[in-house]
Structure to design on (282 residues):
């Protein structure tokens, strides 16, 4: 008996993957779509490895050594690092204050009129308006909001706090509503039918079963807020990013290297703290 032969009674075609044709077709379609997209962006990564590019890259990286360690400079970096964390924290606080009421108002499972199966016209219109507001808030990048608020309130951390608060408020509100609506809604519907308020249904039914996922996403967004607060400094929103921009314009590579190392440590600490919190939540 030939060990490589198909089992008796089965045709050779039965050994083929029935989904093979579909996978090949989808792969070909994806390549046909991606090719013109990459062409339009002039994506040519191999150009980074020619002799001229490697020479320029080497000169740029050598300018980072040694890192600046002067006491007065390190004291300034410590102050701006603290300000960066403060911008991210205040921005996330503002985002939560904005997202929580909008989430409760836009979540279908907390609607009294939806208990009968079809939501009434006025509540439906209100919820659609709130969802459009959330789309508008998150569709504008925080960098654009920061540029707007720098013109309104001037240079400084206030513009960064407002920018993070608005953009992240829209993001949190959308994801919070999706998390609440994707879980088991039987308990909340039962409470609403028995005369409980929306807040009671949220606090006793939806929040306990979705708390882990809600907190996990909030912690993730807090990490992103720290990164965003550094980027916003480039448009005058204060913090470590503004000092990083100034040092790069002055070609002070050692100062840039020190601030990049501090920023790396800051993000690593935020990542570690979020991992510990997720572990504590189970």
């Amino acid at each position: 008996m030939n060990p490589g032969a198909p089992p008796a009674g089965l045709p050779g075609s039965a050994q083929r993957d029935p989904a093979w044709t579909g996978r090949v077709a989808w792969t070909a379609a994806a390549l046909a779509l991606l090719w013109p997209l990459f062409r339009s962006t002039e994506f040519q990564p191999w150009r980074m490895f020619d002799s001229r590019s490697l020479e320029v890259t080497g000169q740029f990286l050598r300018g980072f050594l040694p890192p600046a360690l002067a006491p007065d400079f390190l004291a300034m970096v410590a102050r701006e690092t603290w300000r960066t964390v403060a911008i991210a924290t205040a921005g996330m606080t503002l985002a939560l204050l904005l997202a929580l009421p909008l989430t409760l108002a836009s979540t279908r499972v907390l609607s009294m009129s939806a208990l009968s199966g079809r939501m009434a016209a006025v509540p439906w219109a209100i919820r659609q308006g709130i969802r459009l507001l959330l789309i508008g808030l998150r569709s504008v990048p925080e960098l654009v909001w920061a540029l707007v608020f720098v013109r309104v309130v001037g240079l400084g951390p206030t513009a960064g706090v407002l920018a993070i608060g608005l953009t992240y408020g829209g993001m949190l509100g959308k994801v919070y509503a999706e998390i609440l609506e994707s879980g088991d809604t039987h308990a909340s519907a039962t409470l609403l039918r028995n005369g409980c308020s929306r807040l009671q249904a949220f606090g006793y039914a939806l929040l306990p079963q979705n708390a882990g996922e809600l907190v996990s996403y909030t912690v993730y967004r807090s990490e992103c807020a720290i990164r965003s607060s550094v980027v916003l400094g480039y448009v005058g929103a204060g913090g470590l990013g503004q000092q990083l921009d100034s040092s790069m314009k002055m070609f002070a590579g050692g100062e840039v290297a020190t601030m990049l190392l501090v920023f790396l440590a800051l993000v690593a600490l935020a990542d570690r703290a979020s991992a510990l919190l997720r572990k504590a939540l189970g």
In short: The radius of gyration is 26 Å. The chain has two domains: 18-57, 71-281.
